[in-house]
Amino acid sequence: MTSLVEKILNGDEKSAARLISKVEEENSGAYTALSRLLPHTGKANVLGITGPPGAGKSTLAGRLAVAFADSGRNVGVIATDPTSIHTRGAFLGDRLRMKNAEKKKIFIRSMAHRGYPGGLAKAAAGAMYVLEGLGKDVIIFESVGAGQSEKGLFLLCDTIITVFTGDYGDEIQLLKAGLTEIGDILVVNKADKPGAEEAKKDLEAFSSRVNTPGDWHVPVLLTRADSGEGIEVLTDAIKRHWRFVAESGKKEQKKKEKLGLLFIALLKEEFWQRTQKRLKKNRLFKDVLSDVRSGKTDPYSAMQKVLDSLGTTNI
Amino acid sequence: MKAKAIKVLIAKPGLDGHDRGAKVVAHALMEAGMEVIYTGLHKTVDDIIRIALQEDVDVVGLSIMSGAHVPIARKYMQKARDAGIDDKMVVIGGVIPAKDIPQLKKIGISGVFPGGTPFLDIVRFIRDNLTHA
Ligand SMILES: Nc1nc2c(ncn2[C@@H]2O[C@H](COP(=O)(O)OP(=O)(O)OP(=O)(O)O)[C@@H](O)[C@H]2O)c(=O)[nH]1
Ligand SMILES: [Mg+2]
Predict the structure, then answer these.
(1) Less CB within 10 Å around the terminal CB: N or C of chain A?
(2) Comparing C-alpha atoms, which of A299, A300, A12 is closest to residue A135?
(3) Which positions in chain B touch A114 (Cβ < 8 Å)?
(4) Is the dihedral of CA B25, B27, B31, B37 positive or negative?
(5) What ipTM, to 2 d.p.?
(6) Which residue on chain A is closest to B54 by alpha carbon?
(7) Which chain B positions have a beta carbon within 8 Å of A90's beta carbon?
(8) Is residue A304 part of a domain?
(9) How many CB pairs under 8 A join A and B?
(10) DSSP code string of A210-245
């Protein structure tokens, strides 16, 4: 995997694409490659786009990618679509909306979410590092679009854009979804549709958090991602936010936090994988499981029993 | 290490503007548990090569209704070799006369599925013929 890392650092897209696949497969060699890429990362501006299904996230991501590419930046996009819980299949339809991006030097990778908590695929962090190694200095994530609990986005992005449309519902819906809490920039897309102006007013009312002076003021912007209207104002706001996080020291602080959280997430996953393997061979576990299924034992006592038998050492 | 999900690109090269069949096949593959990307209409062979490369798909499915399947297949295989992604399985669907199938196979197309081929046959073909590293 050594030559793969070198090829990526030399800008070879095919090697980058292959390594991302290996990260998705949880290949242990891929993790070694990532740790070799990490020293070359951390400088890119990372943008996250979230919002309800169909709001225009992909169309907007495509517009932004092209706008940044046109201004001389080297852009990568990682777009997440849901995995069917029934079939495990996925229709990765984001890329299709990113018109014109194909012609530029933009690297787009579609990822099935595969049910990982936090709005992005499990391989998202690794894919980001691969793209940074490839030389990308702007990375755009499109989340799966669940809205709530977008922890993955928080973890990886400097700036989060939440996309709404005029028909999101009423204020109660807005409060319930908690969507206004997570955007550094709020966008009301489909400005051509009725209700957009009204939505902008609602969002402005809800997003004006009690700010201390010097804090970031969350702007609410109207766009038409399909025609490109409002994109310039949006890119200006994004650049302003990048300056803000850099100058306020938030980027440095977050970078450290990011690595810590990533470490814990990786560890958690690995612990579970290994425990699962051990459990599969564990006689007691099998017996207890069948006892739970047949109603002889309840799940709570069963858990206690298995934990006791595993012990806490030697995981 | 996790079993890899099968990733498929359904592509519409050239000028024909009918993609109903392509979308329906994409849906069927998704139902069969695959991860499917659809390019949208009017892609050049260069676009398709670039998408296949970046997405690192296992299978590229070309949907062609225009009658130009032989030249498009030839062009695709040439450019796939140039890009170093000729290890990916390539299949073709659409309006394909039976008499052209041997020629397509010779060019390097693994599977040819003329309109009306049962989806299950396509799914089975992909599953059976993929050699995952
Ligand atoms: N009228 C109008 N339509 C738009 C606008 N922006 C995007 N659309 C259309 O809205 C539809 C959905 O756009 P996407 O970009 O796929 O939305 P998305 O949020 O990425 O959707 P998911 O990823 O499926 O959640 C497409 O048909 C777009 O062409 C806009 O400003 N106005
Ligand atoms: Mg989308």
Answers:
(1) C
(2) A12
(3) 5
(4) positive
(5) 0.92
(6) A17
(7) 5, 30, 35-36
(8) yes
(9) 79
(10) -PPTTSPP--EEE-BTTTTBTHHHHHHHHHHHHHHH
Kindly report the backbone phi and psi dihedral angles of residue A203, in degrees, each rounded to the nearest multiple of 5, phi listed first: -65, -40
For residues B124 and B70, what is the distance between their CA atoms, to the nearest angstrom?
24
Last-in-domain residue among A252, A280, A301 = A252
* Residue A192 beta carbon below 6 angstroms from any ligand 1 atom: yes
Q: Are residues A74 and A50 in the same domain?
A: yes
Is there a single domain that holds both residue A247 and residue A306?
no
pTM, two decimals, is 0.89
Residues A97 and A228 in one domain: yes
Protein residue with least CA distance to atom 21, ligand 1: A54
pLDDT in tens, A262-313: 788 788 878 888 888 888 888 899 999 999 999 999 998 998 888 888 775 4
Map out the domains of chain B with their CATH numbers.
7-127 (3.40.50.280)
Looking at the fold, whether A150 and A220 belong to one and the same domain comes out as: yes
Domain hosting A75: range is 37-252
Determine if ligand 1 sits within 6 Å of the CB of residue A56: yes
Pair A219, A73 in one domain: yes
- The torsion angles phi and psi of A172, rounded to 5 degrees, stand at -60, -45
Q: Which residue of A has its CA nearest to B85?
A: A14
Strands (E), chain A: 45-50, 75-81, 90-92, 107-112, 138-142, 159-164, 185-188, 220-222
Same domain, A216 and A299: no
Query: A91 CA to chain B: closest CA distance, Å?
Result: 5
For residue A11, tell me if it sits in a domain: no
- Give me the number of domains chain A comprises: 2
Chain A 11-30, CB below 8 Å of chain B: which residues? 13-14, 17-18, 20-21, 24-28
Q: What is the pLDDT of residues A93-137, one digit of tens each?
A: 899 999 878 777 899 999 988 877 667 777 888 999 999 999 999
The answer to whether the Cβ–Cβ distance between A112 and B40 falls below 8 Å is no
A86 and A177 assigned to the same domain: yes
How many A from CA of A170 to the centre of ligand 1?
20
Q: Is B79 helix (H, G, I), strand (E, B) or coil?
A: helix
